[in-house]
Design a protein that fits this description.
Blueprint lengths: L1 H24 L16 H9 L3 H25 L15 H102 L19 H22 L11 H29 L2 H11 L6 H9 L6 H12 L8 H29 L3 H24 L15 H26 L6 H8 L1 H5 L1 H38 L12 H21 L3 H43 L8 H51 L5 H42 L20 H20 L2 H23 L6 H18 L5 H13 L10 H4 L7 H8 L10 H4 L8
Helix pairs in contact: 1-3, 1-4, 4-5, 4-6, 5-6, 6-7, 8-11, 9-10, 9-11, 10-11, 10-12, 11-12, 11-13, 12-15, 15-16, 15-17, 16-17, 16-18, 17-18, 17-19, 18-19, 18-20, 19-20, 19-21, 20-22, 21-23, 22-23
């Protein structure tokens, strides 16, 4: 029963909906063009079309869902599955919508046709309006062109009128200027007539020329009148045709007198204002005075009255810098005093500059005049008393400072004055060439500077040599008598070379070079002066070292003379021989002392040369390099200067070798015994010790050559030791020719040769080592049996000649008839 009721209700609802949709679809749909204007939205249009149908569909759909749920529940309870006798359409309003959509399409097509028609009509209207508009624009363009032509004609007319007006204005201005000039000329003629009235009569002048409040105007007019009158009088000197012009000579004189009176009056007012420090009044007077000779008188007047140029002030400058007149001025004190004085001058100029800037219309000109007065008046008067140029012929003694004091004062003054010029330039000096002015102050001193520098270095060297000689004499007086009494030091009174002295030479030269750098800024001039000064050093070192080496050689010569004095003959008494031996010992001691002294001299000479070379490399060469050839020339001069010392050293080393060899020969003669090499105990156990003579000689050589090893170096050392080794080899070979050798003596000789060879090996002279090795081989001729002598020289044929002399010294040379047996070895003999 419930199902029947629900079906009836559903059918009723369905029938109502169908009837409702049919009623909607049957109604006509009206679309208007206005619906598409403005902010058109298709969604809104569509919603308005279907909203009347879709809500009914939505209600029916909700009811059908609810009914299906109830039926399904009942069927599930009764049968367990759903039962539906008839299904209804899912979207029953579709037909109404389709009908409505077709109607809408028809109306939209109709609306499109209406729109197209209206667009066509609008296009026709637009085309007609555009044609009309173009025609109007063409007419307007023609009108604008005509207007532009009118404006161009108007502009041309205006320009023409403006030019005419400008010309008229120029003419008016010129006329006004001429009128003004004529008026001024008339006024000037009036004033000129007043000045031309009578000579010296200035009482009838216009009040303008006596009114203190119109001084500037009066000065200007007076200068104009003076210019006119002087020009006219000047023309009179060329052409004397006009008699009227001669009368202006009176005006010229009166105007000159008036201008002078006016200028003096202004200067007096300027001075009064200056004393009261009334800068405004001073400036007014200076401005007016600038019309008289461009203000030269005012500037000179102002500068000349400055207190800094008073005589008392300049005398105080001299007292400040030079100090006490009874004592020598010190360059360091003078430098401090000049720094203080120049600082005071700079501060004064700086204060005056402030006043000048506030007063004068052309302050640079006044500053130039002020600084020029400083550099031409105050500074020169001080330098004149400070720098008194000494005589080169009769220079002041070193006790009074010598030439060096003048050079040091010159350098200090030049350096400090340059600093003053730089300070004044920073304060302000207008267009003044203050650097050139500073140079001119020292021009007279710089012209002769290098001659004074050379003379000073010579004076210093001479004084130093005199000082060293005096010290040497004092030392000789105190120690010479003791040394001579013992005969131990002949050269004790000789002055030895001192590296300290050479260092002092270099220091003098270095100071001189610094002055060269100060006085010679140009590279070429500097290089020339540096070469000159450095050559002085080379001469000093060369002379000093050469004389020192010669003095050391004198010691060697004296020692050689002592040795010759005590050479005795063969037949003398024992007492005389003992005295001679003692004297020979003293001569030997003197020789050894002189040898050591000379080696010390050579060593110090080498050190001195090294100091000069180092000084040249560090300080001189860089100053010479900018000039082509200067460096090479100085190097050549350095080599030439040292050649004399090298010659003295070479001769002295030869004397040293002679001294050493003389002592070696004396020791060998005194200590070598005949029994040393011809022992009566031949065949007994041989003595493997060196002979006493060998021991004494090696000890002497070790002792004396210690000085040579220390003093010499490089090639000099090698050459000296090689020569000494060769002389020692020759001397020993000749010495051994005096003796006869038996086999045990040969062994003793071989031991001596080994001792000598070990010693000379310290010479590092390969040729000397080879000679002593040959001697060792030849010593074997005394040891081997006579029948083995020929085989002894098979490997060393080079020593055959010397071996022949040695074989003759064998004890058995004659008894064994060795000359005949070995004759085949020396076919030439």
């Amino acid at each position: 029963m419930i199902l029947c009721k629900m079906k009836e209700i559903r059918d009723g609802v369905k029938s109502n909906k169908i009837s409702s949709s049919e009623s909607i679809s049957s109604q006509p749909l009206v679309l208007d063009i206005e619906d598409f204007k403005g902010d058109f939205s298709f969604d809104a249009l569509f919603g308005n079309l279907v909203n009347e149908l879709l809500p009914a569909f939505q209600e029916e759909d909700a009811d059908s869902l609810e009914g299906n749920g109830n039926i399904s529940g009942n069927d599930a309870l009764s049968n367990g599955r759903s039962t539906q006798t008839q299904s209804s359409p899912l979207f029953p309003e579709v037909d109404s919508l389709l009908s409505m959509f077709k109607n809408s399409c028809s109306q939209l097509v109709e609306l499109q046709k209406q729109i197209d028609g209206r667009l066509y009509n609008l296009k026709k209207d637009v085309a007609a309006q555009d044609s009309k508009h173009r025609k109007t624009l063409g007419e307007l363009e023609k009108g604008v062109d005509g207007l532009f032509d009118s404006f161009a004609r108007l502009d041309s007319r205006i320009s023409s009128v403006g030019q005419t007006a400008a010309k008229i204005g120029d003419h008016l201005q010129s006329a006004d200027s001429q009128r003004e000039t004529a008026s001024q000329t008339m006024e000037l003629i009036k004033y000129l007539m007043e000045f031309n009235s009578s000579p010296g009569d200035l009482m009838e002048l216009s009040p303008l020329f006596s009114d203190d409040s119109r001084v500037a105007e009066a000065a200007s007019i007076a200068q104009k009148l003076r210019s006119i009158a002087e020009e006219d009088v000047g023309r009179q000197g060329v052409t004397v045709q006009s008699t009227a012009s001669r009368g202006l000579e009176v005006a010229v004189g009166n105007l000159q007198e008036y201008c002078n009176e006016l200028e003096n009056r202004l200067l007096s007012r300027f001075d009064a204002a200056s004393q009261k420090r009334e800068l405004s009044t001073m400036a007014e007077c200076a401005k007016i005075l600038s019309q008289f000779n461009r203000g030269t008188s005012a500037m000179q007047h102002y500068v000349g009255l400055r207190p800094m140029f008073d005589v008392e002030v300049m005398n105080a400058d001299t007292r400040l810098v030079l100090g006490d007149q009874d004592s020598l001025p010190s360059p360091s004190n003078v430098a401090r005093a000049l720094s203080s004085l120049y600082k005071e001058i700079t501060d004064t100029v700086r204060k005056e500059a402030a006043t000048i800037m506030a007063v004068f219309p052309s302050p640079n000109d006044v500053m130039s005049s002020l600084v020029q007065r400083v550099m031409e008046d105050r500074v020169p008067k001080l330098l004149e008393k400070l720098l008194v140029k000494p005589s080169l012929v009769h220079p002041p003694p070193m006790g009074e400072g010598g030439l060096l004091l003048y050079l040091r004062m010159l350098a200090v003054s030049y350096e400090k004055t340059q600093e003053l010029a730089k300070d004044l330039r920073s304060v302000g000096c207008g267009d003044l060439d203050i650097e050139g002015l500073t140079e001119s102050l020292f021009l007279d001193h710089k012209d002769m500077y290098i001659e004074y520098e050379q003379a000073s270095l010579r004076q210093l060297y001479k004084a130093k040599m005199e000082e060293l000689l005096s010290e040497s004499q004092l030392s000789g007086e105190s120690t010479g008598s003791i040394g001579r009494s013992k005969g131990a030091s002949i050269s004790s009174s000789h002055q030895q070379i001192s590296v300290t002295v050479v260092t002092e030479f270099v220091r003098w030269n270095e100071e001189a070079i610094s002055r060269c750098t100060l006085f010679s800024p140009q590279p070429a001039n500097l290089a020339a002066n540096v070469r000159t000064v450095f050559t002085c050093l080379l001469d000093q070192v060369s002379q000093y070292t050469t004389e020192g080496l010669e003095r050391a050689r004198d010691g060697l010569t004296e020692a050689a003379a002592l040795r010759e004095r005590f050479v005795l003959g063969t037949s003398v008494s024992r007492r005389v021989a003992a005295a001679a031996a003692s004297a020979a010992e003293a001569a030997a001691a003197a020789g050894e002392s002189s040898f050591r002294s000379f080696m010390v001299a050579v060593q110090r000479c080498g050190s001195s040369v090294a100091i000069v070379q180092q000084y040249f490399a560090n300080s001189i060469s860089r100053l010479l390099l900018p000039v082509d050839g200067a460096h090479a020339a100085s190097c050549e001069e350095m080599g030439t200067a040292m050649s004399s010392a090298e010659g003295a050293a070479y001769k002295g080393l030869q004397q040293c070798i002679e001294t050493v060899m003389a002592e070696v020969e004396r020791l060998l003669s005194a200590e070598q015994k005949a029994t040393d090499y011809k022992s009566p105990d031949d065949g007994v156990v041989p003595d493997h010790r060196p002979t006493n003579a060998c021991i004494r000689v090696v000890a002497y050589l070790s002792r004396v050559l210690e000085a040579a090893f220390t003093a010499l170096e490089g090639l000099n050392k090698q050459a000296f030791l090689t020569e000494l080794g060769n002389r020692l080899h020759k001397g020993l070979s000749n010495h051994w020719q005096k003796y006869t050798f038996n086999p045990s003596g040969g062994l003793r000789l071989k031991r001596d040769i080994t001792e000598y060879g070990d010693f000379v090996r310290s010479f590092n002279a390969p040729t000397v080592d080879e000679k002593f090795e040959s001697l060792s081989i030849m010593a074997n001729v005394f040891i081997v049996a006579p029948e083995s002598l020929s085989s002894l020289f098979e490997g060393t044929p080079s020593i055959l000649k010397d071996a022949q002399r040695f074989i003759q010294l064998r004890e058995d040379y004659k008894s064994a008839k060795l000359a005949a047996k070995l004759s085949s070895l020396w076919p030439s003999s």
